[in-house]
C-alpha cells in the first residue's frame, strides 16, 4: 500500500512539474504514462461530463479536417493539443486515490517544492547576471505559475480543508509559496489570486452581502488601475516598472480592434489582438462551414508576416493562438466555442452542500471556471502547453469523492457505535 501511495505521489509531482519545462511532447508522454499506470474501472459521471465537452470539440475538428487538405503531421499535432484538457482531467482524477489528508498534503508539498526551485533559480539568475531585471528573471525562472496560486489559496484557507499543520509550518509554507508566486510578476496570477480568494470566501454565490463585496472589489481595482495609469510607467522600464507597464496596457492589449503592424511597439504590445483579428478574417473567408465547424485539425493561422515565437524561431503559420476561444474557433468553429463556453458554465454551477470541506472544493471549482473566462481569452485556458489546471480540476473532483466517502464511513461507524 505504501509503495502504491509513493508511486501516486511521484506521478502527481511529475504531472505538475513537467508543465514547467515548456516541452509539450514531454507533458504528453508523462500524462499518457500516468493515465495508463493508474487506470480505473469506474469513473464519476461528473468527470465524464466535463471530459465530454472537450471530446466534442476534438471530434468536430476531426470531422472538419476530413473535408480539407491538411498535412498529416499537423493533424497529429492538433490531436495531441486538443486532447490536452481531456488527458489532464483524466490524470488528475486518477491520482487522487489516497486519504483526503494525504491528498491535500501531496497537493501542497508539490507546490512548496516548485516554489523552492523557482526562488533558487531566481537567486542563481541574479548572482549570475548581477542584476534584478524583470524580463531576464521571467525568461530564466518562468513567466507564471497557476499551480502555486492554488496552493497559496489552499494554505490561506487551510482551516476550511482541515489541513493539519502546525502554525509555524503553515507560516513558512505561506511565506515560501507567496514569495515565489509574487516573483513571477504575472498579471494573470494576480487576477487568479483575487478570483480564487473571492471564490473561497463564497462571494460568487450571490447574496446581498456578496454583491456589495464584489462591487467594492471592482471599485478598488478601478482605483488601483487608475493609480498605475496615472503613474505612467514606461515601456522597457527597469525593475517593477516593466510589470506596471504591463498592467497599464492590460485592458487594451487583448481587445484592440485596429493594429498598426508597421509600428513595432503597437504590434508587440497588442499582438494578442492582432492574432484575434487575423483568425476571424481567415476563418470567415473560408465560408459558412468553416465559421460553424472550423477548418479542422491541421489548420494554421497565417499571420501575414514572420514573428519571433516562444520556441525561439521565426514563424508565419501558427497552429494555435494565445486566445483559447479563437484557437477552438479556428479548429472547430462556433460549434466548438459553444461547447467550450458550456464547460465553463457547468464548472461554475456547483451544487450547494452542507459539508464545509466539500463546499470549499466547490468554491475552488467555481473560482476556476470564472478565471477560465479570462484565461481562455489571453492565455489559451486549459489548452496552453504549460497549463496544469486540468490536472487540478480532475484532482479536486476526485478529492470531493474521497471526502464524501470518508464522511459516509464515519457516519456508518457512528451509527454502529450507537447500536452497541
Automatic annotation (TrEMBL):
Q: Which UniProt keywords apply?
A: Membrane, Transmembrane, Transmembrane helix
Q: Where are the transmembrane segments?
A: 12-35, 47-67, 107-129, 141-158, 170-199, 211-229, 328-348, 360-384
Keyword flag Transmembrane: yes
Give the protein name, as stated in the record: O-antigen ligase domain-containing protein
Amino acid at each position: 500500500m505504501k509503495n502504491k501511495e509513493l508511486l501516486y505521489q511521484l506521478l502527481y509531482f511529475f504531472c505538475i512539474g513537467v508543465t514547467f519545462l515548456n516541452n509539450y511532447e514531454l507533458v504528453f508522454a508523462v500524462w499518457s504514462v500516468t493515465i495508463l499506470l493508474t487506470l480505473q474501472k469506474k469513473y464519476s459521471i461528473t468527470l465524464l461530463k466535463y471530459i465530454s465537452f472537450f471530446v466534442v470539440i476534438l471530434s468536430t475538428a476531426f470531422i472538419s479536417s476530413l473535408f480539407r487538405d491538411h498535412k498529416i503531421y499537423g493533424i497529429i499535432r492538433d490531436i495531441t493539443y486538443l486532447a490536452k484538457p481531456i488527458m489532464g482531467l483524466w490524470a488528475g482524477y486518477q491520482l487522487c486515490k489516497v486519504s483526503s489528508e494525504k491528498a491535500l498534503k501531496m497537493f501542497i508539498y508539490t507546490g512548496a517544492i516548485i516554489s523552492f526551485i523557482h526562488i533558487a533559480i531566481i537567486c542563481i539568475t541574479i548572482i549570475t547576471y548581477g542584476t534584478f531585471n524583470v524580463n531576464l528573471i521571467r525568461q530564466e525562472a518562468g513567466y507564471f505559475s497557476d499551480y502555486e496560486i492554488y496552493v497559496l489559496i489552499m494554505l490561506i484557507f487551510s482551516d476550511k480543508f482541515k489541513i493539519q499543520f502546525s502554525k509555524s509550518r503553515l507560516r513558512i509554507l505561506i511565506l515560501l509559496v507567496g514569495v515565489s508566486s509574487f516573483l513571477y510578476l504575472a498579471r494573470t496570477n494576480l487576477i487568479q489570486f483575487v478570483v480564487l480568494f473571492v471564490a473561497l470566501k463564497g462571494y460568487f454565490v450571490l447574496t446581498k452581502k456578496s454583491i456589495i463585496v464584489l462591487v467594492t472589489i471592482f471599485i478598488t481595482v478601478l482605483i488601483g488601475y487608475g493609480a498605475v495609469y496615472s503613474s505612467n510607467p514606461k515601456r522597457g522600464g527597469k525593475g517593477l516598472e516593466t510589470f506596471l507597464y504591463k498592467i497599464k496596457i492590460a485592458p487594451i492589449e487583448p481587445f484592440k480592434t485596429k493594429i498598426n503592424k508597421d509600428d513595432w511597439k503597437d504590434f508587440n504590445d497588442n499582438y494578442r489582438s492582432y492574432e484575434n483579428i487575423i483568425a476571424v478574417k481567415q476563418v470567415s473567408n473560408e465560408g459558412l462551414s468553416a465559421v460553424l465547424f472550423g477548418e479542422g485539425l491541421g489548420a494554421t493561422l497565417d499571420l501575414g508576416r514572420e514573428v519571433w515565437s516562444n520556441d525561439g524561431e521565426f514563424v508565419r503559420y501558427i497552429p494555435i493562438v494565445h486566445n483559447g476561444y479563437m484557437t477552438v474557433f479556428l479548429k472547430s468553429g462556433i460549434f466548438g466555442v459553444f461547447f467550450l463556453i458550456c464547460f465553463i458554465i457547468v464548472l461554475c454551477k456547483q451544487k450547494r452542500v452542507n459539508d464545509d470541506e466539500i463546499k470549499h472544493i466547490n468554491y475552488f471549482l467555481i473560482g476556476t471556471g470564472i478565471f477560465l473566462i479570462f484565461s481562455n481569452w489571453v492565455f489559451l485556458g486549459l489548452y496552453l502547453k504549460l497549463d496544469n489546471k486540468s490536472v487540478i480540476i480532475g484532482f479536486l473532483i476526485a478529492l470531493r469523492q474521497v471526502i464524501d466517502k470518508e464522511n459516509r464511513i464515519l457516519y456508518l461507524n457512528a451509527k454502529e457505535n450507537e447500536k452497541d
